[in-house]
Design goal:
InterPro entries: DUF4349. By secondary structure, the chain is of the alpha+beta class. Helix content is 60%, strand content 19%. It has a 5-stranded mixed beta sheet.
């Protein structure tokens, strides 16, 4: 038994030493891996490289649109003058006013045509209110025009023209010869006229943006059965006027045909002369 132990003792000793070394290496690897994992966790998120590039989104600039509104409204009226007074009493409540008007009257109808200016904020409300006045609405329409680019172009043109005008004034102050001074003043006058024209267009456009336009047309149809018949005397006068007009027309027509009359007279004279020669021979 002692001999067997002496034989296996060296082998058993070597096996125990190898097992201890393997255990030490494994612990070292675990410790090393753990330290590296802690190093990764200790890195702040902002300093770690991103897998995908992140683009910063810039907020889109909101452009203020400049709009011009126009409306058309037509309705039939039962009592034309009463409705006309109603329209004019309503307008001040919406800060609106009549820009132009026209009245027409014939044998069939009487009509008012009004061009109304109203602040853009009250445009729809005034359209609805006017639509409720007449007997029935026969036509209603509206449209909106975007004049943003036109407005900005006008402002840019005016600014560039004024800058050129200032440059001309500087040259005029430095000019010494009469010829140069007259030329610069002529260019200044032309440029000033252009600037005033552009500014007038800009003011008109600003007014159209601030105040919308409503073209109002309302009418009353006349009852033909109640229409007054013309008297005998009025019919006689119209007949006389028609006959006189026809006489004047025929007279003017004859005057226009005077070349034919002259040609006919010359033809008759030639024929008489030819006949006289034939008679003598």
């Amino acid at each position: 038994m002692k001999q067997l132990l002496l034989i296996f003792q060296p082998s058993l000793f070597l096996f125990i030493i190898g097992a201890c070394q393997n255990t030490g290496n494994s612990d070292f690897q675990i410790v090393e891996t753990g330290e590296r994992f802690e190093e990764v966790l200790d890195v702040p998120p902002s300093e770690q490289p991103a897998k995908f590039p992140v683009e910063e989104l810039q907020p889109a600039t909101e452009i203020q649109r400049l709009l011009v509104k126009r409306g058309n409204l037509e309705f039939e009226s039962v009592h034309l003058e009463d409705d006309n007074q109603k329209v004019r009493k309503i307008l001040p409540h919406f800060k609106a006013y009549v820009d132009s008007e026209n009245f027409s009257n014939n044998d069939f109808s009487s009509t008012y045509q009004l061009s109304i200016k109203v602040p853009v904020a009250h445009f729809e409300d005034l359209m609805d209110t006017l639509s409720s006045i007449g007997k029935k609405t026969t036509n209603r329409s509206s449209n909106t025009d975007d004049v943003t680019r036109n407005f900005r172009d006008l402002k840019a043109t005016i600014e560039s023209k004024k800058a050129l005008e200032n440059r001309y004034r500087e040259l005029l102050s430095k000019a010494t010869q009469i010829k140069d001074m007259l030329e610069i003043e002529r260019n200044l006058n032309d440029l000033r006229n252009e600037i005033e024209g552009y500014e007038a267009r800009l003011r008109t456009l600003q007014n159209d943006i601030s105040y919308s336009t409503i073209n109002l047309h309302f009418y009353q149809v006349k009852d033909q059965s109640k229409a007054e018949k013309p008297s005998f005397f009025s019919r006689l006068v119209k007949s006389f006027q028609g006959g006189w007009d026809m006489f004047i027309w025929l007279l003017l027509a004859l005057v226009r045909l005077w070349p034919l009359g002259v040609l006919a007279i010359l033809t008759m004279v030639v024929i008489k002369l030819v006949r006289k020669k034939q008679a003598k021979s």
